[in-house]
Amino acid sequence: MNFVVLTIFPEMFIPFWEHGIIKRAVDRSKISASTVNIRDFAEGRHHTTDDRPYGGGCGMVMKPEPLAASIRAVKKKQPCSRTVLLTPQGRVFNQKIARTLALSEGLIFVCGRYEGVDERICDSFIDDEISIGDYVLTGGEVAAMVIIDAVTRLIPGVLGGADSAEKDSFSEDLLEHAHYTRPRTFEGTEVPEVLLSGNHKEIEKWRLEMSLIRTFLKRPDLLKNRPVNTQEMEILEKWCLDIRKIIQARQSLSGADSLPGN
Ligand code: 4HQ
């Protein structure tokens, strides 16, 4: 995977390339990562990259010529790379998009500043428009970092052993179960007994159950459009039965005592 970021603030990426998983992926030649300063492609004594909007109004717009020249220069070296513009108007980034982007040979991220880029760049130089969420950033740089981070960890050989990428097919698209490490008691709170049992089958069952219940309670939207396998169905049915028992115990109580609203 070749990442190239087009930006007027390439310095922002120096610490980003040089830490953690990204650095390891570069060192192991799983990815290449570089920035191109759009200003280097701007003409004139001041290498201006922005200009006033036609039609008036406040704010500035990224001029098309330096963007076009920098995209062309990178495309010439990497013709198979896809160009991605970071914009609130793009499709909203998620793990599924990360998986597709990870299959690409290379990605060229175009980071706008100010009010955004001249529309003619979007029309003719961009393959994909992506947003990292419905809020307003001051530039596309942070959004590009988010996407590069999520994509890099999906590239085969980047995460190894200790931090595996995507896990057993069943816990996919669920929230993570709770995690614990030493000490066994922290400020009066114990680690769940089952995790100390050494019974790996029970531990896996507990983890799946916790993933499911957390997803149901915190992010029910994630369960809506997702297939449910037999093991998960068994867990859901067990809860269903337990809840029904509580309701029935209530109903027989209120029936005996005939307490309305109880
Ligand atoms: N931008 N996801 C860059 C964003 C954004 C987002 C606003 C893009 C400002 C100049 N990018 N322009 N949300 O808010 O990707």
Describe the structure.
- There is one protein chain.
- By secondary structure, the protein is of the alpha/beta class.
- The chain has a domain at 2-152: Alpha/beta knot, CATH 3.40.1280.
- It contains nine helices and nine strands.
- The strands form three sheets. It has a five-stranded parallel β-sheet with strand order 2-1-6-5-7, sandwiched between helices. Strands 3-4 form a two-stranded antiparallel ribbon. Strands 8-9 form a two-stranded antiparallel ribbon.
- α3 (64-77) packs parallel to α5 (119-125).
- The relative contact order is 0.11.
- Ligand 4HQ binds at residues 86-88, 112-113, 116, 131-133, 135-137, 139-140, 143.
Provide tags for this entry:
40% helix, 5-stranded parallel sheet, alpha/beta, two-stranded antiparallel sheet, elongated, 9 strands, Alpha/beta knot, 262 residues, binds ligand 4HQ, tRNA_m1G_MeTrfase_C_sf
